[in-house]
Amino acid sequence: MASEIGEGADVVANIVRSRPATRDIAQRIGIGSAPLCVVCGRGSSGRAGVFLRYLVETRLRLPVSASAPSVITAFRTPLMLRDALFIVISQSGRSPDLVAATRSARASGARTIAIVNAMSSPLTDEAEFVIPIEAGQEHSIAATKTVIGSMAASVGLVAELAEDHALRSALDRLPERLHRALALDWSEIANDLAKASAVFVAARGLALGSAGEIALKFSEILRLPSIGVSAAELQHGPRAALSSRTPVVMMRLMDETAASVDALAEELREQKIAVHICGGPHGSLAWLTEDDPATDPVAMLVPAYRMIEQTARACGFDPDRPPRLRKITETF
């Protein structure tokens, strides 16, 4: 896992170099008549899909729905997706439910795109267009470089669909930022994890997918119950579950959500909740100078991944082989 976290920058550099192929796909899709976008994925790929949702809605102004593959596989109910944009994200491209959902979407008239690491897979056979992550084989059960690649490929696709020069430039800068992020130390969080009963990871907007991914890694690698939650939702019901034994990790971007995240962090600190915040003037976690809010959530994964991997080893856990898990999970 430690080695593969370090490979993320090279994966993104390859995605940047593949821009002409992504641009060709964007030009062939023609989303002008698309009524909506449907995003499909499970596990870490599903969290990357949350990130993609905010990218599409904020940069393309296209409403996004999260696909429920069981509607196809369990309920056997094809959806009416004519002219919709259907984007599926997968590492292995082998899970039967994702393959079936993509096949059904394409048959209904959707434009289907697969963002996938394994190019020789059933999923690539079913999708009309394929954007390769090209992360190489990932040996750790916990996905890291493929998640970073999935999110970077999403940025690249939306940048081309929107013809967004600023987003292209931000993606160009991302490999170097990922390299620098490897030196960031978030070990201060580990001190609170030892006595934690659960962990909340909070963010808003474009950082929400990364918050969910970090929460997933807390559960998967540190075997600690964790939930990724919107900082807005944390002001409602989930707030009642906070205590001195539930540290909160917050991800704060320099965008329209910044003020509300800052305000919540201040309130929680006043209530003696352990808050660790990345970004902004009141941030407690080591961070780089803020860049584009569409790429900072990708870079924030790196110090979080490193802290979780190192904490697992300190606890005597094997971060590469969490119990009762397999690298490829085939759901139906």
UniProtKB/TrEMBL annotation:
SUPFAM superfamilies: SIS domain (SSF53697). PROSITE patterns: SIS (PS51464). It comes from the Bacteria. GO terms for biological process: carbohydrate derivative metabolic process. Keywords: Aminotransferase, Repeat, Transferase. One of its GO terms (molecular function) is carbohydrate derivative binding. It holds the Pfam family SIS. The keyword Coiled coil does not apply. Residues 25-167, 189-322 form the SIS domain. InterPro entries: GlmS/AgaS_SIS, GlmS/FrlB_SIS, SIS_dom, SIS_dom_sf. This is SIS domain-containing protein.
